[in-house]
Amino acid sequence: MLDRFAEQLRKARLKKGVSLQQMAARTRIDFKFLEAIDSGNFSFLPELYVKAFIKQYAKAVDLDEQEIIKKFETAKAGKVIEDDEPKSLLEQKIEISRTKSETEKEKPIPIFDGSALASRMPAKPDETKKKLRILFYAAGVVLAGVIVFFAFINRSSTIVVEELPYEKVLEETKDRYQVQEETEETPANIINPDSLTLQFVNSDSLDSAWVMVIYDDIKKEDFLLYPKNTKTIHAADNFKFTLGNSGVILLRLDNQLLNFDGKRGSVRHYEITRNGIQRLNSPPIVKIE
Predict the structure, then answer these.
(1) What does pTM read for this prediction?
(2) Residue-range domain boundaries for the chain
(3) What is the 3-state secondary structure (H, E, C) of the chain?
């Protein structure tokens, strides 16, 4: 039986056009072992090695290794093996594919029964309508909460702003920039017809001015002169003063307008006597307390 098995291997090798020398090069099996296989002598090595060589032999000639090993086992057991040549892997794949296609052709094509499937499927609720209902319910709850909040909870926090009549606002605005005249109370010892009268007039409608004034070298006063306001003071002989934002101030001495070099945003120092006005280089100071 092993002779017939060896003959099948040899026919497969010759069919592929592979010589023993080429087989030895492909499989790295010693040439003498290949000769033994071709002659049906499988006792040259232990069976474990022989089976390994048979697998390499089958692989080299494109045969199914597992099928060849089964045939070797059958032949070794003394059973008759088929006399046909072993088929290559490609031939086996083609045969399997052909058999499979023929089997599929023979199978009846199932007819889809839609009514039966529909009867088995449970009826599902309309998910879209269900979601819309949930959305409407949620919106209603939110709206109700907002109404309750503004109607009851937030009532105490409402701020009411009382709007003034237009006429009152106009009157207050007018009074704010109305020219006001303040008259300095003159000490008794300098009240006489020959005293000097000086007026500080803020001619600007927006900016204020700061004034520090010394009367007759003995009295000092400072004040803030708001827009469109006037301050009147008296002295026996002279005034010495410092003006902040001097460009917005007009000076009148005994109702006569004085010319001086005041400048908006600047601080300047002056002295006024009966002879007129002159600029000082430094702030005036009180000489006698």
Answers:
(1) 0.37
(2) 2-100, 176-280
(3) CHHHHHHHHHHHHHHCCCCHHHHHHHHCCCHHHHHHHHHCCCCCCCHHHHHHHHHHHHHHCCECHHHHHHHHHHHHCCCCCCCCCCCEHHHHHHHHHHHHHHHHHHCCCCCCCHHHHHHHCCCCCCHHHHHHHHHHHHHHHHHHHHHHHHHCHHHCCCCCCCCCCHHHHHHHHHHHCCCEEEECCCCHHHCCCCCEEEEEEECCCCCCEEEEEEECCCEEEEEEECCCEEEEEEECCCEEEEEECHHHEEEEECCEECCCCCCCCCEEEEEEECCEEEEECCCCCCCCC
Chain segment 49-89, per-residue pLDDT in tens: 889 999 999 999 999 999 999 998 998 888 876 655 555 55
Q: Does domain 2-100 have CATH number 3.30.1300.10?
A: no
> What distance in Å separates the CA atoms of residue 117 and residue 113, rounded to the nearest whole number?
7
Least confident window among 116-120, 141-145, 192-196, 210-214: 116-120
Q: Within 13 Å, how many C-alpha atoms sit on residue 129's CB side?
A: 3
